[in-house]
Design goal:
The complex is a heterodimer.
Chain A: E1 6-10, E2 23-28, E3 31-36, H1 42-53, E4 58-59
Chain B: H1 31-37, E1 59-63, E2 75-78, E3 82-88, E4 100-107, E5 116-124, E6 141-149, E7 153-160, E8 165-173, E9 180-186, E10 200-210, H2 212-215, E11 225-226, E12 247-257, H3 269-276, E13 280-282, E14 298-302, E15 307-313, E16 323-328, E17 337-338, E18 347-349, E19 352-354, E20 361-364, E21 368-373, E22 388-396
Antiparallel strand pairs in B: 1-3, 2-5, 3-4, 4-12, 5-10, 6-9, 6-12, 7-8, 7-10, 8-11, 13-22, 14-15, 14-22, 15-21, 16-17, 16-22, 18-19, 20-21
Classes of the chains: A alpha+beta, B mainly beta.
Chain lengths: 66, 399
């Protein structure tokens, strides 16, 4: 059983045509938060694990209401 | 043989050098005797063992999932039942303590094979090198705690090297709705190892319910061993989720080296708060979970791009760069509010809530925040040069 239930994980635009390389915009059990891309952060490590396991995909940014 | 010393009532002095360790009877000086009068400081490896600090909230209801819900440093692992988890006051704690953590079952559930209901604390490996695990002189550990439960029976405590090796012990709650002090000692692990880093390397788990996946093997209470899931929990483990009449409280949790439980090490609440801040910080609530309304923690200014530039320093260096939630700071709101999608702003932006379009990214180091990627604002576009931005912050670097 995973301890962290990601509703979604999204990239964040950097305003210059690329993506923010410091953090993801994430929803966990309905709570939105910012997860830093750094090994040792519990949520980031779980994102990396679930992506490697094929159970999570990093989404492109979309309007939250879409 | 009686000893009479010149008919006097005692010994005035003993000549230097005449009392050696060998001349003291082995059981004459014991840890409990010393602990009665001597302050053996900083021996409790547990943080917030008396449940004083609850920055996130003093109580939550309808809990069905795993998170650090109430008391700092205490992880609530939940996939069975629905719970009201609250920090209780002195009326619901042993005389020695001012708080306890309470689980109240509000929706009951039968066990499934994978059911888990656990209260756990985790440690960084760099804080436990003195246990000398992996060496012939590995330190034994003694856990003591106070429990109160409406449900008598067998419960399990597990000591776990974060998935590598474990040993468990059971204890019995003898009387319903009565505070009881329990003590458990386990030997040191001469074969294990605890990496010397800042990640989770060790945990203690108080099991409150467990499915057959965890109870169907041979209960491992004899020696540290590689984890076999079926051996982790006692086969008679209570299912605290089986009735809405069930209630469980715990406090005074102390883990120390050696084979003797010493009196609980009370430290000032402010010190415990400081220790907790390494793992979680809330600018919007105090150490008792009470709202600090209308308080901005991070303040910055727009750059004309997505970045809001500005710095704020955490009150303690955190374990690692934390996961952050910005909270709305509004002169017009009676309390802080969490941003949520396009309908909820997160920042005060030129006298308006900043309603993000693409999300946000808090650029956090372990010592503070250096900026926030605010994205686009649905009504104002990008944060213009020198526009004012501010928000409260919760930051989690938990294990």
């Amino acid at each position: 059983m995973s301890e962290i239930n990601f509703d979604w994980v999204r990239k964040i635009p950097d305003g210059e045509g690329g993506y923010d390389t410091d953090c993801y915009f994430v929803s966990i059990d309905g709570v939105e938060c910012s997860v830093p891309m750094i090994e040792g952060n519990k949520e980031y490590d779980e994102i990396v694990k679930q992506v490697a396991d094929g159970t999570l995909t990093i989404e492109e940014p979309t309007l939250p209401s879409e | 043989m009686a000893v009479v010393i010149n008919g006097t009532t005692g010994i005035d002095t003993i000549q230097d050098g005449t009392v050696s360790t060998a001349k003291i009877v082995a059981d004459a000086v014991t840890t409990p005797k010393i602990a009665e009068t001597v302050n053996l400081g900083r021996r409790n490896l547990v943080t917030n063992g008396e449940m004083q600090i609850c920055q996130r909230d003093s109580g939550v209801s309808g809990v069905t999932s795993t998170a650090y819900h109430v008391c700092d440093r205490w992880l609530n692992v939940i996939n069975i039942g629905t719970w009201s988890i609250t920090r209780q006051g002195p009326a619901n704690a042993p005389n020695e303590f001012s708080n306890s953590l309470q689980y109240d079952c509000t929706t009951s559930a039968s066990l499934s094979a994978g059911s888990e209901l656990i209260l756990a604390q985790r440690w960084e490996g760099q804080d436990l090198q003195h246990l000398k695990f992996g060496h012939s002189d590995a330190q034994s550990l003694t856990l003591s705690f106070w429990v109160y439960s409406s449900k008598t029976g067998t419960y399990t405590v597990e000591f776990d090297q974060y998935g590598d090796r474990q040993i468990s012990q059971s204890y019995t709650i003898d009387s319903a709705n009565t505070w009881e002090k329990k003590t458990i000692t386990v030997s040191g692990d001469v074969s294990g190892s605890i990496d010397n880093d800042n990640t989770a390397e060790f945990q203690v788990l108080f099991w409150l319910a467990a499915g057959s996946n965890l109870t169907s093997g041979t209960f491992n209470n004899s020696a540290w061993a590689s984890v076999t899931t079926a051996n982790r929990v006692h086969p008679s483990q209570v299912n605290l989720a089986d009735s809405t009449n069930n209630l469980f409280r715990i406090t005074g949790i102390q883990l120390e080296t050696g084979d003797t439980a010493t009196p609980y090490e009370h430290i000032p609440k402010g010190d415990t708060y400081q220790r907790c801040l390494r793992y979680f910080f809330s600018s919007i609530r105090d150490e008792n979970g009470v709202d600090r309304a209308r308080r901005a923690f991070w303040m910055g200014h727009g750059t004309g791009n997505y970045l809001g530039a500005g710095m704020a320093t955490f009150p303690a260096v955190m374990r690692t760069s934390p996961t952050c939630v910005p909270w709305r700071y509004s002169l017009n709101a009676s309390s802080n509010q969490q941003g949520s999608g396009a309908s909820g702003g997160i920042m005060y932006y030129n006298n308006q809530d900043f309603t993000h379009t693409y999300g946000y990214g808090v650029k956090a180091e372990n010592w503070g925040i250096v900026g926030i990627n605010c994205g686009e604002n649905t009504t104002n576009g990008r944060a213009s040069d020198n526009s004012h931005l501010m928000c409260g912050i919760t930051a989690s670097a938990e294990l």
